[in-house]
Write a structure and sequence with these properties.
The chain has about 500 residues and is mostly helical. Helices cover about 70% and strands about 0% of the residues. The chain contains 22 helices and no strands. The radius of gyration is 24 Å and the shape is globular.
């Protein structure tokens, strides 16, 4: 069930109203049933997989807790953790990476002149599997480290792993944040409900008005890149950076807002990432729940930055390569992750040289123009890497780069009608204008967030007529300019495929 579907617009009010209406002792059971129904709406068979992950991780956590209480040797606890982690990784490897591993093995053997025929098989990727398996592994590791105690109530734990707002695309919640909230009373609060609905509305605006509109243009250029110039491919890649941000950021806002309506606080997943002045800062503000997961469970256990500079660089590259692989079973995703790691290594290696150069050239670093330059450079590096993320494969990405170099199309830069011909052929001019207006509103809102301005508080301080003007303006913008309706095929959120 997509957030941007009629089914969800019926499903969510019923679930939220039921949650506040039914007695407290049945609330979590109600949410668990709703969450399983939400997940089964894609494919009922998916329930067997998430139930298996739930049962295994719940039992393993209890066994580790019991090992601690009975003061057994750590060997037993480590074995239990290994079983739990291997189960989750095994499920993920089979459903998400089996075909990729088999294809890579065949191609690798062909390099040595060996021809191997693998049996043809196609594994259906269950939606959201990367998210809830990582959430389960994070829970097991927290129990192992004694950060939390194992949850004895199975229904409570099952809801933690399947809570529908964040089930299929995050945020990847930590047990320390969400588990205790599932045990607390959440009475109806009108102001909180209004705040959650406003955040959901902002998420729908990002998805329906901006992301889905940009998607039409980007898809056309990437699917038929040979007929477009390098300048046009570059424009499409720049727009993709905003498409994926509005798509995933919009989903995250809808998820956080939906949970807030019912009284739950989920992890903030984005914090104005395109205002970052370095790639490392970008990653501290992009997909925060995943970035922090890799930091706490991969990067730091590898040694982090505690064992010298070169091991630090190795850990960064390994962590970001794994992050790229998490996003998709393809070499283009690994290269995308590796590029983002290399950017940070290069930034650290050249730090002293850049500081010395700035001093010699008397460049001021405490002014807005310098920060604007930093943001532009950071966006350029990040956006270049997005090309590998968006391309169908590594081979396609390299072909697109070669085509862009050999067919730059400089003259299109001086001819806006030629450069933006894609807006008249693919996207009508009025839609192109709406897209630009939406991006302006997005960056304006992100700028306010960047300055830590309380947008909700600012609205609350205004007159009633102004607040409702903003609310109705957001609603009508979605209804009038959103991409939906009988002829519209609801666009799946990009991160659902991961």
């Amino acid at each position: 069930m997509l957030f941007n579907s009629t089914g969800f617009l019926i499903f969510f009010p019923i679930v939220a109203a039921g949650y506040f209406w039914i007695p407290r002792r049945y609330k979590n059971l109600w949410l668990l049933g709703a969450s399983y129904y939400f997940y089964a709406s894609w494919n009922p068979a998916y329930l067997l997989l998430i139930l298996g992950t739930t049962v295994v991780s719940w039992v393993i956590a209890i066994l580790m807790d019991r090992d601690d209480r009975r003061k057994k040797k750590d060997t037993w606890k480590r074995w239990h953790l290994a079983v739990g982690v291997l189960w989750n990784l095994g499920v993920l490897l089979f459903f998400k990476y089996a075909v990729f591993i088999a294809d890579s093995l065949v191609k690798g053997l062909q390099l040595f002149g060996l021809s191997v025929k693998m049996p043809a098989f196609d594994v259906l990727l269950p939606v959201g599997i990367s998210f809830y398996t990582f959430q389960a592994m994070g829970y097991l590791l927290d129990v192992y480290r004694k950060k939390i105690s194992a949850e004895r109530n199975f229904l409570q734990y099952a809801l933690f792993l399947s809570f529908f707002p964040q089930l299929v695309a995050g945020p990847i919640e930590r047990s320390g944040n969400l588990m205790h909230q599932l045990k607390e009373e959440h009475p109806f609060d009108l102001e909180r409900v209004k705040s959650g609905l406003l955040l959901m509305g902002w998420g729908f605006f990002q998805k329906l008005v901006i992301a889905d509109r940009i998607a039409i243009l980007v898809t056309e250029v990437y699917d038929h890149y040979t007929i477009y110039s390098g300048m046009q491919i570059g424009l499409a890649t720049i727009l993709f950076a905003f498409q994926i941000y509005c798509d995933f950021g919009g989903y995250s806002d809808i998820a956080v807002g939906a949970a807030r309506v019912m009284g739950f606080t989920l992890t903030k997943n984005f914090n104005s990432p395109y205002h970052a002045v370095s790639v490392s800062e970008f990653w501290r503000n992009w997909h925060i729940s995943l970035t922090s997961w890799f930091r706490d469970y991969i990067y730091i256990p590898l040694g982090g930055n505690r064992r010298g500079r070169w091991r630090k660089y190795r850990n960064i590259l390994l962590t970001f390569s794994l992050s790229g692989l998490w996003h998709g079973a393809g070499w283009n995703y690994i290269v995308w992750g590796l590029l983002n790691g290399l950017y940070q290594v290069a930034g650290d290696l050249t730090g002293r040289f850049r500081a010395s150069l700035q001093k010699r050239l008397h460049i001021r670093t405490d002014c807005g123009s310098y920060r604007l330059l930093q943001r532009g450079i950071t966006f350029g590096f990040v956006d270049f890497a997005w090309l590998f993320f968006r391309a169908d494969s590594l081979g396609t990405a390299l072909q697109m780069l070669w085509h862009s170099v050999t067919n730059i199309g400089l003259f299109t830069f001086f001819n806006p009608n030629s450069l933006l011909c894609i807006n008249t052929i693919i996207l009508p001019e009025k839609d192109f204008v709406v897209m630009l207006a939406g991006l302006f509103v997005l960056m304006l809102a992100d700028g306010r967030r960047r300055k830590k301005a309380d947008i909700k508080g600012t609205l609350a301080a205004q007159n009633v007529w102004f607040r409702w003007l903003v609310y109705y303006g957001l609603i009508f913008a979605i209804l009038i300019f959103g991409f939906y309706g009988p002829e519209y095929d609801a666009s799946t959120f990009i991160y659902f495929q991961f």
